Amino acid sequence: MFITGNASSRKAVFVEAAIDALSYQAINPNALVLSTTGSGKALLQSTARTLDEKGFKIIAGFDNDKEGELFAAQVAEVVPTAERQRPAHGKDWNQQLKEGKREQDAEKKPDSGKKRAKKRVRKVVH
């Protein structure tokens, strides 16, 4: 299991891949993010249960696909109060991060790709 983020957070977010953990953490810097990285059902469930018992809010932030729903269901089996969070754009949190970056870059671009020539004004004094 790969873990990143704010260790003092009371929010534990489970995701599938390490890149998703890093991406989620970049979007939500105050979260503790755990990547299952092929850890298996037993480790996923025991970790979720332990963190829940320690007072963490458990979030199933798995991919927005069939496999992600399966992992979320496995978490819900042991922590029925777990929240399900899906990326709004794309299949996973890395795609969500990239989409957000593209939107930010688009907002920074000027209306035209061409640089505007500065008008030179000559002041004539008589």
UniProtKB/TrEMBL annotation:
Residues 81-126 are annotated as: Disordered. It holds the Pfam family Toprim_2. Residues 115-126 have a biased composition (Basic residues). Residues 83-114 have a biased composition (Basic and acidic residues). CDD domains: TOPRIM_primases. It comes from the Bacteria. This is Toprim domain-containing protein.
